[in-house]
Design goal:
By secondary structure, the chain is an alpha+beta fold. It is built from eleven helices and 20 strands. The chain has a domain of 131 residues: Cholesterol Oxidase, domain 2, CATH 3.30.410.10. The chain binds flavin-N7 protonated-adenine dinucleotide.
Length: 538
């Protein structure tokens, strides 16, 4: 893409060779590079500000920098997914293909049938850890590409119980949550869509919630429900209304961040998004500038070029797993001297539990409407607040089962540790860390599914799949405010290095899904950065 406003100097080097200056190189993100004697070519770039990642944190950061007049390069490891109505952009849950997994030879998502293929820069990464695997989105838009879109603001007391204590809930309530919601435009499922045959599982779940004496809840989803209506009328191929959303929605109706914050950022002409640019390492040079070691890859994952980008300001928005891995590697290899000790720590899974629910004598049917748009905010539970939702599954035939998902508040006891053999950081977690919350969530799910009666609930076949497939969609922590960053995401003692994503949050966002809170926090942090650091630090 063109980048007229980016003042850039590009240096071209062969490995081991001296620098050759190619100032003001032309329109491509990359300058022509010399080819090393062996291995991919290496080139150099100089930038004022670099953002790693295009999820919620990265996209908000890019837009705010652009509005402040800062030319910004955004590095994204994945591809740009062409999102239009009625497309075949994304693969399907029950007939996955190589687009479904990030550089993996087979399916990675629990419940999606096993298939084998040549690895591809697909939309969903499974970050394998010890005792816990993390799922995250890959591509322009990050997690918003694959997420259901449950957009929930936590209550003040639960925010206080899980978020860094320096954060003022009233300010979030008054301002930051509203700003984020104004962009995402979340709306609850309307009556006519909920009444459609494919939303049978949602209605069954709402009935059970009501029978159990709790208040049924329609979860706000950042999507255009008219698109669901079009699907129901047969005008476009179903995606939401069959629950086929976990590899991305093919109907163009979801307000993903590539189409909101990031699109606005790119429209300023000050932001360039470089896709298939995977950051391998970050480093601080002797002059205190930031060096980003980038691998430009093909969609098969082959490295075709290495780029060394020097910048005055580096914003980490690679998500909890991505940012934590980069920081832990930098600390272990002493690429960034004096990084805080807490790097990689204070990590939690947001209390995620996923259950399969097989009601006896009744069936939620095949091709269950979604995304996960109904639930219950069981926030006064004496065992701690829990949000429980029904997630429709796009089963091709009626197998009598659906899924139920719970979120709570956990102690952030997980930690990423460096593994020198893999030259990567690995997450370490034990199910003992959230055993208490798990027990409470399981009990409450059974009670609700039994219409208020635990014994009746046991008659449903309710399996906590998370005990055998211990995974999370909601990684949080690894570079938390207080331990690693100041209250606005500046890494302690590292001028010009910032974190602005889910890594800042120690393990939970007040017993509900995290994306709204991550976006709100990112907006808040950028208020401070553009006021005090733009023009002084960079
Ligand atoms: P994230 O959105 O993960 O963005 C990180 C970006 O960095 C991605 O674009 C990566 O490709 C990129 N990246 C990572 N490493 C590198 C690297 N080395 N070099 C270059 N680029 C890199 O981070 N949350 C909700 O609130 N509601 C939901 O309904 C919901 N459903 C979900 C369903 C699924 C299947 C999954 C996986 C997640 C779901 N989430 C949901 C979680 C949500 O997507 C997540 O909290 C946010 O996306 C995290 O935002 P971040 O900005 O932290």
């Amino acid at each position: 893409m063109g980048e007229p406003n980016l003042s850039r100097r590009t240096f071209v080097v062969g490995a081991g060779a001296g620098l050759a200056l190619a100032a003001g190189a032309a329109s491509s993100a990359l300058a022509p590079a010399a080819r090393a004697a062996s291995g991919p070519a290496v080139s150099e770039q100089r930038r004022r500000a670099v953002v790693i990642g295009t999820g919620f944190g990265g996209a908000v950061t890019a837009l705010r920098l652009a509005r402040a007049g800062v030319p910004t390069l955004v590095l994204e490891r994945g591809i740009r997914w062409p999102i239009t109505p009625d497309a075949e952009t994304f693969p399907h849950m029950f007939s996955p293909d190589r687009r479904a997994a990030w550089l993996s030879p087979s399916t990675v998502l629990t419940g999606s049938p096993p298939r084998f293929w040549k690895p591809y820069t697909g939309v969903l990464e499974r970050v394998r850890g010890v005792g816990m695997d993390v799922f995250c989105g890959a591509g322009v838009g990050g997690g918003s590409l694959v997420y259901h879109g449950m957009t929930i603001q936590p209550r003040g007391d639960h925010f206080a119980a899980s978020m860094p204590s320096v954060l003022d809930y009233d300010a979030f309530d008054r301002d930051y949550y509203r700003r984020a919601a104004a962009v995402l435009k979340p709306e609850p499922i309307p009556d006519d869509v909920l009444a459609a045959p494919s939303y049978r599982s949602s209605r069954m779940f709402l009935d059970r919630v009501a029978d159990s004496g709790l208040e049924p809840y329609r979860v706000p989803i950042p999507m255009d429900w008219d698109v669901a209506r079009r699907e129901l009328r047969g005008e476009i191929t179903p995606s939401y209304t069959t629950g086929d959303v976990l590899y991305g929605a093919n109907n163009g109706g979801k307000n993903t961040v590539d189409r909101t914050w990031l699109a606005e950022a790119e429209a300023t002409g000050r932001v360039e998004v470089a896709t298939l640019h995977r950051v391998a390492d970050i480093e601080r040079d002797p002059a205190g500038r930031w060096v980003v070691h980038v691998e430009r890859i093909t969609t098969d994952g082959d490295v075709v070029e290495r780029i060394r980008i020097t910048t005055d300001a580096l914003f980490l928005g690679a998500g909890s797993a991505g940012t934590s891995r980069l920081l832990v590697k930098a600390r272990a290899k002493d690429l960034v001297p004096d990084l805080p000790e807490g790097v990689g720590a204070n990590w939690g899974n947001n209390g995620d539990r996923i259950f399969s629910w097989t009601p006896v004598g009744d069936s939620p049917g095949a091709l269950q409407g979604g995304p996960a748009c109904v639930g219950v905010r069981d926030w006064d539970n004496p065992a701690g607040p829990i949000t429980i939702v029904n997630g429709g599954v796009p089963f091709p035939t009626d197998v009598g089962t659906t899924s139920v998902i719970g979120f709570s508040i956990v102690e952030p006891r997980g930690v990423f540790r460096y593994d020198p053999v893999a030259d990567d950081a690995k997450l370490h977690w034990s199910q003992t860390y959230d055993a208490q919350q798990t027990a409470a969530t399981t009990k409450q799910v059974r009670r609700i599914l039994g219409g208020g009666k635990l014994v009746q609930g046991l008659a449903n076949i309710t399996l906590d799949t998370s005990t055998v497939e211990t995974t999370t969609y909601h990684p949080l922590g690894g570079a938390t405010i207080g331990d690693v960053c100041d209250p606005h995401g500046r890494v302690l003692g590292q001028r010009g290095l910032y974190v602005n994503d889910g890594s800042l949050i120690p393990g939970s966002t007040g017993a509900c899904n995290p994306s709204l809170t991550i976006a709100a926090l990112a907006e808040r942090n950028m208020d401070e950065v553009v006021t005090h650091d733009v023009g002084t630090v960079f």
